[in-house]
Design goal:
Layout lengths: L2 E8 L21 H14 L4 E6 L3 H14 L3 E3 L43 H18 L4 E6 L1 H11 L18 E7 L2 E8 L10 H6 L3
Parallel strand pairs: 1-4, 2-3, 2-4
Antiparallel strand pairs: 1-5, 5-6
InterPro entries: His_Pase_superF_clade-1, His_PPase_superfam, PGM_Phosphatase
Protein name: Histidine phosphatase family protein
């Protein structure tokens, strides 16, 4: 039986002073803190049997993958199936709990939280993310792979693999910045799912706090 692990990594913190929902917009790169988060993930994998690194083509995912690939002397493959989910609020200032969803102008957009109506259907996200993970598993068969993606797609993938309903409360996602959700396969069978936060010591730091530490 061939044992393979696919580690799905969420990118690090992004420089976003406007605090908009940037989604798939180009030009959003890691902040200084985000770069350190990516390095922490690379250190987390040091000494492991990583044979394949793939990432969403968005800048923040590619940047997060860079120190990981460098640690193992690997090239970074790109896979569109790892992209951030499409969202109708892209480019706007909107977030969980900020009151935007109570604005009558948004009611039609948020009419169906189960699909959801404001963006890419959860089932579509689950299907493409599953395909990306299985492709990474096959590319690293008998070893380990790293796939860098984004919070919502990773969380939907995990819920799909755990056979849970896909609609959920965004505040309850276990998928912090630079976190690692690991899918363990025995042959073609999913044998277990693990979770780690190698950049946990950096979570909650503002840029000013990060700089004050002299990091």
């Amino acid at each position: 039986m061939t044992n393979t692990i696919v580690h799905v990594v969420r990118h690090g913190e992004v420089h976003n002073p406007e605090k908009i929902l940037y989604g798939r917009l180009p030009g959003y790169q890691l902040s200084e803190l985000g770069v350190q988060m990516a390095k922490a993930v690379a250190q987390h994998f040091a000494g492991r049997d990583i044979a394949y690194v793939v990432a969403s083509p968005l800048e923040r995912a590619q940047q997060t993958a860079e120190p990981i690939a460098a640690e193992f002397g690997l090239a970074i493959a790109a896979d569109d199936r790892l992209l951030e989910s499409i969202n109708g609020f892209e480019g706007k200032r909107v977030g969980v709990g900020d009151g935007a969803l109570r604005d009558p102008r948004n009611w039609w957009t948020v009419r169906d939280p189960f699909t959801p109506s404001w963006g890419e259907p959860y089932r579509v996200v689950a299907d493409r993310m599953t395909a990306a993970v299985l492709a990474a598993r096959d590319a690293a068969a008998g070893h380990e792979a790293v796939a860098v993606s984004h919070q919502l797609p990773i969380w939907i993938l995990r819920r799909w693999m755990e056979r849970k309903r896909l609609w959920h409360d965004p505040r309850r996602r276990q998928c912090s910045l630079a976190s690692v959700t690991s899918f363990h396969f025995e042959g073609d069978t999913l044998a277990g799912i693990g979770y780690a936060e190698p950049a946990g010591h950096l979570l909650g730091l503002s840029q000013d706090a990060f700089k004050a530490r002299g990091a």
